[in-house]
Fold:
Amino acid sequence: MLIALIARDKPGSLNIRKANRDAHLAYIEETGVVAEAGPLLNDANEMIGSLVILEVNDMAAAQDWAKDDPYAKADLFADVELIPWKKVIG
Structure:
């Protein structure tokens, strides 16, 4: 099952994002369930959130993954949505 994780950073938290980026990328690598991922950007091309496509067995697995993400543990996000997603193109 594919799940889109859409997370928006708390305002003014770019330093938290940068400080935890290496741990976040290592977590993506070690868990092996991320199909695609990248930052959301504002008009100034600054990172303001994340879009992660998870390939997991169920929503509970996606929730667990999101909870254990170093960004989440660093309290980076103002909000996180987990939405089932269907790949159509690409």
